[in-house]
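2024-03-11 09:14:02 DEBUG pipeline.ingest accepted 1 chain
2024-03-11 09:14:02 DEBUG pipeline.ingest length=401
2024-03-11 09:14:03 DEBUG pipeline.predict start
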Amino acid sequence: MISGEHEPVSEESAGRTAPGFGGPSGTAPVTAAGQPALHALVAGVARTLRLPPTTRVWLTADAAVTRQADLYGRHLIIGLPLLSLLSGTELRALVGHELALLHRPDARRADRALAKWSSAVWDEAVQELPADPRREPDPYVAELQDAADQAAITAAGGAEPAARAVALATLSETGYLVFRVESGPPLLGQWWWQFSDLLDGWDRAVRYGLGDAEWDAETAAVLARLHPRLSGALTALGRESLPLVAAARSVPVVPLSVHKQRRLIRALTDQSVPTVLWWRTYETAPARRWRRRAAKDARSIRAHLAAALGRDLVDDVEAIRAIETGAAPCGCGHAGGHHEFTAGDPAVSLVEDHLLRRGWRLEHPAVRGVLIGPDGRRVDAIEILRAGADSAVVRELLGSE
């Protein structure tokens, strides 16, 4: 997260720093020996910005790049899930933005001021009647925004990659939360077990593609207020689609041990160290979990379509046809226009529901819609959906005449 959108550092949170490791609780250190590429990138940004090379760098299982100043020093905290989506240039922008704020003498005051301003801007954005005239930042906040944005531009070599990094960092938080809800244990309940390969599962899903993110001109406008120097680039980006896909030139990361991954996941789910967790992998989780997920999602889609059409559906072929043609608006289609099926499409659940009930299995449970049949046949639900509701392959797989 950037622009002070995270919570300001408090004395209580500073007190959670682990003296034995010298870093924030539930993190893994980034060193030249352990993570050479990432360590070199942060050091290079510090040199570019002429900042002291005293920042301590840590990895976390959250999808954000944040900062923390406390009694043990200045810490840059980089979320592993975010690295899958960012190019090296984009990551440099986020690192530069955070380092510029982290190395201020008034770093804690800056955190509080930016967090307060960010909350005000987002709250104003969701109001039914926008405030008029629009509130403007005070001079201190404006100076903080300008300095941090300029550092991001300098580190990335331009406003465009810096703006894209800001947008992806914002969208990835929602995307990662949705992934955890759909593909991990519920965030509320079933706290006694967790996936030890959560990060690997996320990387697999990103490589397949998570589809178009919730990105639009309104979101870009909010970010433009939080990043005035990037406003032009963000506004232009708001007119484009912004899918969450694996970056072509991401920074290579040395895989963490299972023990370190579990430490990060414990912190992510706010589980104290003494808590006993039953650790599982995606592939050893009960198959009924994925069947129930698909069945629940499919029921929701059918209900939305039936309500929009004003009658019950004949079968799922008709459901796919309604989505494809835009005959009925729902969470996966737009009325009045042809629907393009892309990665992450909710209609994938219709295909999953049929096949999982007939003995098929997911190739990897963290990736939606790629299934293996009892005879070894492999299908990709997106390719099936793109073939059209009336195609022979769709009717065969969905068991329709």
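2024-03-11 09:14:41 DEBUG pipeline.report Residues 1-21, 332-336 have pLDDT under 50 and may be disordered.
2024-03-11 09:14:41 DEBUG pipeline.predict end
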